[in-house]
Amino acid sequence: MRRLRRTPLIRELVREVTVSKADLIQPLFVEEALTKNTPISSMPGQIRFSLSSLVREAIELKDRGVRSILLFGIPSHKDDDGSRACDSEGIVQKSIESLKEQLGDDIVVGTDVCLCQYTSHGHCGIVRDGLVENDETLKRLADTAVSHARAGADLVAPSAMIDGQVAAIREALDDNGFKDTSILAYAAKHSSSFFGPFREAAFSKPEFGDRRTYQMDYANPEMAMREIALDIKEGADMIMVKPALAYLDVIYRAKKRFRMPMAAYNVSGEFAMLKAAAREGWIDEKSAILEVLTAIKRAGADMIITYHAKEAAEWLQS
Predict the structure, then answer these.
(1) Nearest to 170 by CA among 161, 181, 154
(2) Catalytic residue (choose from 21, 94, 100, 189)
(3) Is 242 a catalytic residue?
(4) Model's pTM, two decimal places?
(5) For position 7, what pLDDT does the model report?
(6) To 10 degrees, what angle do helices 221-234 and 248-258 make?
(7) Given 3.20.20.70, 3.40.50.1820, 3.40.50.300, 3.30.70.260, which CATH number is that of 20-315?
(8) Which of 88, 169, 266, 291 has a CA-to-CA distance to 112 between 20 and 30 Å?
(9) What digits encode the pLDDT tens for the residues 74-126?
(10) Catalytic residue among 242, 255, 275, 310
(11) How far is Cα of residue 55 from the mean position of the Cα atoms in its chain?
(12) Is 189 a catalytic residue?
């Protein structure tokens, strides 16, 4: 077996799994109130962008070969019902318009569809009597997705884990003339401790309780398969497992079972752990990042949403 490991070129020749720049999706945070960029302390190298600087970042990503992004908006005003999420003049909607005006089809613009950044309480839906109201939230999520499509989004990615969200969004998109807008469903989004840095970045930590009543229990892989099957039945074009690194088995199962375009979200806590270990000199950063991305691809992901996308693109050959 060692004959096929003798030189770098031979190893490359027989490599079974390869990560390419086209596989990568860079999440970007854009904050309505900002006039200049703000570093995110728990996510080294990541930034909350102002609207004016977001397009410049997208152009730089494109030039490096990363042609897909996932937008997260941070509004200047929040309320109990997350009403700014579907505002046509909201930060995400304006960002989409600017990106498409400058880059057109040279970039895939995806948008997170959730309410946690927009609600004063930080939960992913409309709260009544201390509980997230499922059906009332569906209307707000559908209106938000339509507003993103109207601004020019290529795909919408519902992440609230509200039952029926994919069906509600697909129906609303179709009814409003956006039959070609794709849905990337956060189909198996788990209630995870690895989301912590994101919640600091997006100011979306719940003010009370937690999200375990709607996000998935990480101990239930068969339930994850049922969640994914439901989203496919409701009209999802692509499915996602989140987080990625601690859920490689779920990614593998889902790809084998459904044979759908599969995304995995290499989340903020996974990103921060590698950055912290590299900062301490405990791991080689470049090799560790490429190993992690390859492991996610090897498990079955066709696309990887990762905060490493920009730097990884510098190291990947194609």
Answers:
(1) 181
(2) 189
(3) yes
(4) 0.96
(5) 97
(6) 40
(7) 3.20.20.70
(8) 291
(9) 999 999 999 999 999 999 999 999 999 999 999 999 999 999 999 999 999 99
(10) 242
(11) 18
(12) yes
